[in-house]
UniProtKB/TrEMBL annotation:
Pfam families: Thymidylat_synt. It comes from Hornefia butyriciproducens. Pathway: Pyrimidine metabolism; dTTP biosynthesis. (6R)-5,10-methylene-5,6,7,8-tetrahydrofolate binds at D180, A275. This is Thymidylate synthase. Homodimer.
Length: 276
């Protein structure tokens, strides 16, 4: 059975059992009809996925991994913060009349910084280090730039990725301040796992572990019954991930550079309402 399912079920059960409701607080997020979107939240989930064993995708419902790749490609490859550069519609609610989500996500990844070796943005710097200084303990990205927060439509949630090569394994820690468990938990895990697989394949490493640290892991009130149902559902084996071995440059990966063989999942009959 898929390891990601086990982790997801354990996380959901933990939150439902030990989490705390914010019903007595004034909360920012709301539903499309204007009702406040309250949550049950738990502090400090730490999930460890060994990417050399299997691809961490859930089967309790379908994770739209190609759309998830498109979003992460928008941030890490296109370095755009305009929804006109994104094929899906998951960010439409947060964009202004020009399609911009402000100085968030992709914008931060595209800002260049000075180094002795020249000016580079955050992604280029990761690539430069993996190629030239893989033993470095300074390989990380960070989109949570306080200086620009006031100009972001939404503050970055999965905001930092630390890479570390040990032996020939490329490992990473994903730091996330806030996680909507139903909408985006596995979506985010799949995105950052694909980043590790892509970087590893392009620059000659074996995929190692992905550690996902979540400060505030929450289930929105209108999602509680849905996740309960999912957690009780049937689990399938994890599919096999294929990564195109010909791609030797991170920017050369597209959604077609990856294939999932044998992805089976439970039917899902709910419309997911996303709190705004
Ligand atoms: N409350 C909230 N939760 C989030 O997860 C979230 C935000 N807000 N705001 C910014 C982005 C937008 N995110 C989203 C929004 C919608 C889907 C979504 O509709 N997912 C569908 C499939 C979409 C597709 O096929 O492209 C799903 O079934 O998972 C996913 C991520 C993640 N982020
Ligand atoms: O990649 C993402 C982006 C967003 N989220 C969720 C986490 C929260 O439910 C909302 C953001 O609201 P805040 O009040 O700013 O925390 O979006 C996610 O899980 N993953």
């Amino acid at each position: 059975m898929s390891y990601a399912d086990k982790v997801f079920v354990q996380n959901i059960n933990d939150i439902l059992e030990h989490g705390v409701s914010d019903r007595d607080l004034d909360v920012r997020p709301h539903w499309a009809d204007g009702t406040p979107a309250h949550t049950i939240a738990l502090f400090g989930l730490v999930n460890r996925y060994d990417l050399s064993r299997e691809f961490p995708i859930i089967t309790l419902r379908r994770t739209y991994w190609k759309s998830a790749w498109d979003e992460i490609s928008w941030i890490w490859q296109k370095k755009s913060s305009n929804i006109h550069d994104l094929s899906g519609h998951v960010w439409d609610e947060w964009a202004d009349e020009n399609g911009s989500i402000g100085k968030a996500y992709g914008y931060q990844m595209g800002v260049k910084h000075h180094y002795p070796e020249g000016d580079m943005d955050q992604v280029d710097r990761v690539i430069w280090c993996l190629k030239n200084d893989p033993g470095s303990r300074r390989i990380l990205t960070n989109m949570y730039n306080h200086h620009d927060l006031s100009e972001m439509a939404l503050y970055p949630c999965a905001y930092s990725m630390t890479f570390t090569v040990i032996g020939n394994r490329l490992n990473a820690v994903l730091n996330q301040r806030s996680q909507d468990m139903l909408t985006a938990n596995n979506w985010n895990v799949v995105q950052y796992a694909l980043i590790v697989y892509a970087m590893a394949s392009a620059y000659g490493f074996e995929p190692g572990e992905l550690i996902h640290v979540i400060a505030n892991a929450h289930i929105y009130d209108r999602h509680v019954e849905i996740v309960r149902e999912m957690a009780a559902g049937r689990q399938h084996e994890a599919p096999e991930l294929w990564v195109d071995p010909e791609v030797k440059d991170f920017y050369g990966f597209s959604r077609d550079s990856f294939r999932l063989d044998g992805y089976e999942y439970e039917e899902f009959h709910h419309e997911i309402e996303v709190a705004i």
